[in-house]
Amino acid sequence: MSLNPVRPWRSIERRKSRQIMVGNVPVGGDAPISVQTMTNTLTSDVKGTLDQVIRAAEVGADIVRVSAPDEDATRALKEICRESPVPIVADIHFHYKRAIEAAEAGAACLRINPGNIGDASRVREVIKAAKDHGCSIRIGVNAGSLEKHLLEKYGEPCPEAMVESGLDHIRILEDNDFHEYKISCKASDVFLAAAAYQALAEATDAPIHLGITEAGGMLTGTVKSAIGLGNLLWMGIGDTIRVSLSADPVEEVKVGYEILKSLGLRTRGVQIISCPSCARQGFNVIKTVEILEKRLEHIKTPMSLSIIGCVVNGPGEALMTDIGFTGGGNGAGMIYMAGKASHKMSNEQMIDEIVRLVEEKAEKLEAESSEV
């Protein structure tokens, strides 16, 4: 169920999946949908990789994936896993021994690609290492690297081929009495990914990792991910997500959270509702929102803030937000608190006043929650 069940038209009935653990983060079942990203540093650069992991965690990443392409990387994983504030997933391609080394180094989860990890005997060795070291496994099916026999059978990457690949590898894990797994079936094509995920959701009760792979740059990738992931999440499908952008991993986390927040599936920090601005605006809305987004990044307490340029929609939007500012005339506007007009404020002082009010409210809400 979404976080707003009072309004039935906002309800999302989540698919019932079983729950696994990725380190200390529950995935599936009734756990919150977790947000992931992936580092793009050389994993052998321990300091650079950890810095990136920490920055991602600070903006809300629950889990971070790190590539493990060679022995230098898996050696570095030991310190990275030990020092990371969030569970680390080791991304494995081609070399199954890297998966074994990653498990030994303390990875919380092993991401293996069925299309390139090797035959069933190699997968069994990876399963043994995961069991021995308490790792979960993500089966990562990708339209761009499906097994040769499936491409020959279906002629091209298609939902049926992707789901068959995933189910084949689920069978291998379960035949080896391993059940701590989640699964993804990513594609860069939104239609292909969505169809594959819908079929997968019906075929298994495993937790599902959502993603539109190779989605593109900041703008293109955000739009594709919002469409693909947003529609699936709206259907109740998905237990953990990663937004794939050719951008700073921190931006992936921010976009992922915004997708979840827009559907009422997660809350974190200040959600700013703002108008696109027009000739009626009583202040520079675009610049104001840009500044407020930066100055309120440190707030983790969920709350809503409306920044509206004029009185056409401003008071109405303020009715539905914790704090609001509506532009007026003569270089001033109105501050709203909990939907009610509170006090006038000059445009010059408005940003500092809003930041003060948000920080005060966050402090109050945190104190109240700690008393419960």
Mean pLDDT: 94
| Oligomerization state | single chain
Count every helix, treating DSSP H or I runs of 4 or more residues as helices: 12
General form: elongated
Helix proportion range:
40-55%
What structural class do the secondary elements suggest? alpha/beta
Total strand segments:
15
Radius of gyration: 23 Å
Strand order of the largest sheet: 8-7-6-5-4-3-10-9
The parts where pLDDT drops under 50 for at least 5 residues are none
- Strand content is 15-25%
Terminus-to-terminus distance: 23 Å
Main pleated-sheet profile: 8 strands, parallel
N-to-C order of helices and strands:
EEEHEHEHEHEHHEHEHEHEHEHEEEH
Please give a handful of descriptors for the protein shown.
alpha/beta, 8-stranded parallel beta sheet, 5-stranded mixed beta sheet, 15 strands, 43% helix, elongated
Protein model, in words:
With 372 residues, this protein is of the alpha/beta class. Helices cover 43% and strands 19% of the residues. The chain is built from twelve helices and 15 strands. The chain has helices spanning 46-58, 71-83, 96-105, 120-133, 148-154, 159-175, 190-203, 218-234, 249-262, 285-295, 314-318, 347-371, and strands at 20-22, 25-27, 34-38, 63-67, 88-92, 109-112, 136-142, 181-186, 209-210, 240-242, 270-274, 303-308, 323-327, 332-337, 340-346. The strands form three sheets. The protein has an eight-stranded parallel beta sheet. α3 links the parallel β5 (88-92) and β6 (109-112). The model has no long low-confidence stretch (mean pLDDT 94).
